[in-house]
Write a structure and sequence with these properties.
3-stranded antiparallel sheet, elongated
């Protein structure tokens, strides 16, 4: 109690000093930003004193000479043990009574830790949450600098990396515990998307030693990459359009009104990596998850299941291995890029003729006239006597259209109101992977990359707060399974 009174006295003095400072600042007419900065620092100091006082009020956790745990009796050690606790207000020292067989053995029961629900690490749950919310958005170094600037707490990059990996260990259990969306909150079309993106990896010591020195040869990469597969699933209501509507949207960037909003969107990212000595392909993990989502969110098969992706054959092959009944749709924006490639075989880039060419062919493709477009391109190739690079480029476009005709029934898709663009997956790859994993000079270990992908997708899915609550609850159950028994003895000792 004396410790608490001492901290409370210091806090009162601090508060009175804050009031005096505010009054003096008002008399002197100090700039409000300066007053705001001073006040913030004073509030942090005041918060640390009050939090230390709260801890001191609990006592040291002395519940008698002995305490029982699972039928075994442990004795109170003579010396109290200090524990460092870093809160958002600053560092505290917690003095605790410890129970064990003897001094240098494992601390079997620490009543105060259980009463306060202290985390496994020295850093408070709130500080961990704030730290990692910065880390999933920017580099560890930038995150450390931001937290230090705001809270005055210095943390090393290594500490934040370790915190990230430790926190990510709870993501799988959190995902498994998520209930399926309520049917009333779902649309009538279930949409699957997936895409791949390389993550720059750190070279192993052996690779670094054998790596050729000097200027790289043509085609050599500065670093190796490991493929990450990003998948997304959501439901949406039908949005029926015609070819002209879509052309207006993609060519003239004319956003259409009353577009339905995706419902219950979920996203995951998996790195191809070794798990328990077995190499696991990220695509397999993602499509297994998509299969599970289809079974849970469309158990009776009433929803139309569509998958919108680019022309990556590996993605489509993996999809077919896991999801048996779906409508496959080639992302229209990838098709559009190919049509532009064809246009530049005949017209100058940026010309109105090239735009007219693309508009006409895109309209035909959206009307289901892919065969006519292919035939027309072949005729133009002959008529214009294309040679060299342009001939090769046009041939590539024609082959692309021919190989993917079974995924280009756009007239049917539009009539059904299906989405025909994979913007969700494309944006996800850019946002989840590129925007965080490919910052300047960034290289990753497999474990570190997957941890970041797990936490980043949790944050992007809008589940950050729910995840933090879940992990705290799970960790407390693991750390203090006998908390109620300990608190019961605490009450008896009091």
């Amino acid at each position: 109690m004396m410790d608490f009174e001492r901290e409370l006295f210091k806090a009162r003095e601090q508060f009175e000093q804050i009031v005096r400072t505010i009054r003096e600042a008002a008399k002197e007419g100090k700039p409000i930003d300066q007053v705001e900065r001073d006040l913030w620092q004073s509030q942090l100091s005041l918060g640390r004193m009050l939090l230390q006082g709260y801890v001191d009020l609990q006592g040291s956790g002395d519940v008698g000479e002995t305490v029982k745990k699972e039928g075994e009796e442990f004795r109170r050690l003579e010396k109290k043990h200090k524990r460092r606790y870093v809160s958002v207000f600053g560092e505290l020292t917690i003095l605790r009574t410890v129970y064990a067989t003897r001094e240098k053995q494992k601390h079997e029961v620490v009543p105060l830790d259980a009463r306060l629900n202290l985390p496994a690490s020295e850093f408070s749950y709130l500080l961990q949450e704030w730290d990692q919310e910065y880390c999933v958005s920017g580099s560890y170094q930038q995150s450390s600098a931001k937290v230090e600037r705001i809270l005055g707490i210095g943390q090393s990059v290594r500490s934040l990396e370790h915190m990230n990996r430790t926190m990510a260990q709870d993501v799988k259990e959190f995902r498994d515990a998520q209930p399926k969306p309520e049917e009333t909150e779902e649309g009538s079309i279930l949409v699957l998307t997936a895409d791949g993106k390389g993550v720059p990896m750190r070279r192993s010591q052996e690779e670094s030693e054998t790596r050729p020195r000097g200027r790289r040869k043509k085609g050599e990469k500065a670093n190796k990459k490991r493929q990450a597969c990003v998948g997304s699933v959501y439901t949406i209501d039908p949005f029926r359009r015609n070819a002209e509507d879509v052309v207006d949207e993609v060519m003239r960037e004319k956003q259409q009104e009353k577009r339905p909003t995706p419902c219950q969107k979920r996203m995951r990212a998996e790195l191809s990596r070794e798990v328990d000595g077995v190499e696991v392909n990220g695509k397999d993990v993602i499509f297994q998850w998509l299969e599970k989502e289809v079974n849970e969110r469309n158990p009776q098969g009433k929803k139309a299941v569509v998958c919108v992706m680019d022309a990556d054959r590996a993605l489509w092959k993996t999809l077919k291995a896991y999801v048996k009944c779906f409508v496959g749709i080639l992302d229209i924006y990838h098709v559009l890029e190919r049509v532009w490639d064809a246009a530049y075989c005949f017209y100058e880039e940026g010309s109105s003729d090239a735009e007219s060419f693309v508009t006409e062919r895109l309209t035909k493709i959206l009307r289901g006239e892919v065969g006519r477009v292919i035939g027309g391109l072949k005729q133009m190739q002959t008529k214009h006597h294309l040679t060299g690079k342009r001939k090769k480029q046009l041939k590539t476009v024609i082959t692309y259209l021919e190989n993917n005709r079974d995924l280009m029934h756009y007239d049917y898709y539009l009539d059904c109101g299906y989405p025909i663009g994979s913007g969700v997956a494309e944006g996800a790859c850019r946002h989840v992977v590129k925007d965080r994993m490919e910052l300047t000079g960034m290289r990753w270990t497999v474990r570190g990359a997957q941890a970041m992908l797990d936490l980043r997708t949790v944050h992007i899915n809008g589940d950050w707060d729910a995840f933090q609550q879940h992990r705290i609850k799970q960790q407390q159950q693991q750390l203090y399974p006998h908390r109620e028994e300990i608190l019961s003895e605490w009450k008896m000792a009091a």
